[in-house]
Request: fold
Amino acid sequence: MENILYAPWRTEYVSGEKIEGCVFCHITEHPDLDEAHHVLYRDERCFIVMNRYPYTPGHFMIIPHHHTDALESLDSQTWLHMSGLAQRGVRLLKEHFGAQGVNIGMNLGRAGGAGIAEHIHMHIVPRWSGDTNFITSIAETRVYSTDFDKIYSRLKAVSAEYFGE
Reply:
């Protein structure tokens, strides 16, 4: 084999401690572990966490504390709150992360493409012109050009400015 793509950050995923039950409820229930879980922000309705397996650098998710797999059952105040956090998150990515565009989306249910279908969550994905390449298109592989923890630290440093304390 001539071509080898190293992904040492996946070691934790393969050999790390497995969380029993809903991973998002685990994060909700353990605010003392926010830094370890890469939580950017939390309040009484939601939390914002970095996606551990992002589409692009800076990809984060807005997640309600309320465990549900059905958007239609989420109370409207929480939905409006999530939307407000999304607006502020987009501004953060544009102003402090240099995003030229942003994708916002939710994959509802396994059939809708949700990797964690049991707890709804909204993806906020920064984008740049030319950020896709052949390896993503034909090899279903993403090349991450920067360190995940450095991105978390960079976004965490300004998150209070956008989301509050």
The CA atoms of residues 82 and 151 lie 22 Å apart.
